[in-house]
Target: Uracil phosphoribosyltransferase
Amino acid sequence: MPLQLRVYVPPHALIQHWLGVVRDAQTPPTLFRSALTELGRWLAYEAVREWLPTETTEVETPLGTCPATFISPATPMAVVPILRAGLALMEGILPVVPLANVYHLGLVRNEETLEPSCYLNRLPAQFPAEARVLISEPMLATGGSIEAAMKELTQRGLTPEQIRIISIVAAPPALQRLNQQFPGLVIYTAAIDESVNDHGWIVPGLGDAGDRAFGTF
Ligand SMILES: O=P(O)(O)OC[C@H]1O[C@H](OP(=O)(O)OP(=O)(O)O)[C@H](O)[C@@H]1O
Ligand SMILES: O=c1cc[nH]c(=O)[nH]1
Ligand SMILES: [Mg+2]
Model:
């Protein structure tokens, strides 16, 4: 069977709660950031459920020997936050992947053309063959930014199957684009919204995630 994009919207009350907080236009930046931290935490928790590399050994309890499973340091893990908005999820994501390296990628959309451009790229020249990578990108709108990020990662040796995206709101244009170009990719998102308007905003969405997180209106 051909590979297909898989999109998970975990049906969790905490995710729904914090999604409501970030959607509310009255939420101030401090609370908006806390809510994104919580969303990053719970979506990452769901995303790595059967994906974190583990190894089983034995430990001595005070009463005897028993098997114990630990996070394996052998498989390289990484998180790639897409600046700026992706930074706001990181406080929640990083404790879930404590051994991950962080590689920053700064992208900004031109407000008229909606084309992304890259202003910071701290990706390694090549990812290790067994690497597993989480992308932190809260908004998947037209899909231009995530497509640019995926191209940077796949040019550095990763396959879509090695990558999972943590998103907050995903819209159909971005999902269609990713499905066409990167089947095998997996997305964990708090919501799939109806549409993207003529100005590139997700509707109903939550507005400009970067501006709301950092108070730069
Ligand atoms: O799917 P797209 O249509 O490409 O839109 C999504 C991008 O737009 C926002 O970034 P923005 O350019 O606003 O930068 P910021 O995070 O610094 O605010 C958002 O954080 C995504 O990266
Ligand atoms: O709705 C949108 C679309 C792109 N980027 C955002 O921050 N919000
Ligand atoms: Mg922005």
